[in-house]
Amino acid sequence: MALTTRHKLIKNLQTAFPRGTPFDHEQLTKLGVSSALAHHYLKSGWLTRLGRGVFMFPNDALSREGCLKFLSRQVTGFHVGGKTALAWRGVRHNLPAREPLSLWGEGKASLPEWFQKLFPSRYTTRNPFSPKLPRNFGLQPLPETPNGVLVSVPERALLEMLSEVGVHQGIEEARNIMEGARALRAEVLTTLLKNCRRVKVVRLCVSWAEELNLPWAAGAKTAAETRLGHGRWIHRLKDGTFLVLKS
Length: 247
What we know:
This protein has 247 residues and is α+β, with helices and mostly antiparallel strands. It is built from 12 helices and 10 strands. The strands form 4 sheets. Strands 1-3-2 form a 3-stranded antiparallel sheet.
């Protein structure tokens, strides 16, 4: 291949992939870069291998947003949720250093080793919502990155966090975080509660909202009325302890 053609392809790559963004064989192929040519670029030092079939530009600093957008192409339903989304949406403050990102998706997936080294994360497929909930309901990019990765809105993020209570989420911390979620939108929360298929999540949301005297507590109870039942509700947690909630 002529030197000018190679340089043109490199310039095309640098235009197609902003700095801080990884890319893979599929994306390279669409730009006319074959596996053999990608291998040549690697040997020439024009590309750096991150993992199997994944590359970056040499001496680049990968950005969190760029990496998350890359992963969102690989995993159906991929989004930032739970505690992380609550933090990014301004509901949580004073975050612990290097707290794992809470990432969600619809299918089994292993987060790449190179990504985990840069951004420790926990990925889950335990979607607490019914398939009847419209796809991407309560998922939006952050206002400052309108073309960025999807992030749960506070109402959805709260219920995602509650679904993790007793699994990867401590009770006391979850309750303290929920106390700061005072400005939830009633119509969004209502839709999510009506489409939540986990009794634990619904009971925690309604019970703690009442105990914490949150402004939206009454609306949440009305929305979840058919799911609450009567009397105390007892749930055995993963660590063997019991979670007891009043009616």
